[in-house]
Specification:
The protein is mostly helical. The chain has one domain. 75% of the residues lie in helices and 0% in strands. Helix 4 packs across helix 7 and helix 4 packs parallel to helix 9. It starts with a helix and ends with a helix.
Length: 206
């Protein structure tokens, strides 16, 4: 086997490794937040029962301590929401890196083109230049929605016009994005499927 074939096989292996993402492992991005929140709620509930059963405290002292716990639970809810948002950002970043690494291996995109892949118009255009129609790959719409949500979460946390225009039945411009856990679960598998499909197309260009 000559060196050219060896290099091609090696590059094929690397691209498959980058783009065959494991959705079960990526789901852990969200699971960590759920587990931490559940344990905190469990501990808080136990603490409330201990306070109620503490005969050394009068009713005012009990109420005061429970109020403090309520504040902690409220703060924990804010942390949970942030964790869910970070799960979406982490999922998109993982996919973005996988695609960029794969294309860097092929040498078919310039440094400028690689840097422009975060813009969907350029993403479509650059892949079209190497005969890959990304919009025809299963899961593209989910990937694109994930990209738009990622942009919103990173910049403001509110629905942008671009996200509303993409799916007006789901999103309203200016509304706070507050369903990150459900959105993550909805977009995870189709987005991962898109990356795998794109990876297969990229391999054909080697």
């Amino acid at each position: 086997m000559n060196q050219e074939k060896i290099t091609k096989l090696h590059n094929k292996f690397l691209i498959e490794t980058y783009t065959n993402l494991d959705p079960a492992r990526l789901a852990d991005l969200l699971e960590f937040s759920k587990i931490y929140n559940a344990k905190f709620i469990e501990k808080s509930d136990k603490k409330v029962r201990e306070i109620i059963g503490d005969i050394s405290l009068d009713s005012d002292e009990k109420n005061q301590r429970i109020d403090f716990l309520v504040e902690d639970v409220s703060m924990m809810n804010d942390i949970r929401i942030i964790g869910e948002e970070l799960a979406i950002i982490g999922l998109y970043k993982t996919i973005e890196i996988a695609i960029k690494k794969s294309m860097k291996i092929t040498g078919k995109f310039s440094k400028k083109q690689l840097e422009e892949l975060h813009k969907i118009e350029k993403f479509i255009e650059h892949f079209k230049s190497i005969n890959i129609e990304v919009k025809s790959i299963e899961g593209f719409n989910s990937f694109n929605e994930l990209r738009l949500i990622n942009n919103c979460l990173k910049h403001s946390g509110f629905v942008s016009k671009a996200l509303m225009d993409f799916n007006p039945s789901l999103w309203r411009k200016g509304e706070k994005i507050d369903n990150s856990a459900e959105t993550f679960s909805r977009l995870l598998y189709p987005s991962v499927k898109f990356v795998k499909g794109l990876g297969n197309k990229i391999i054909l260009t080697l």
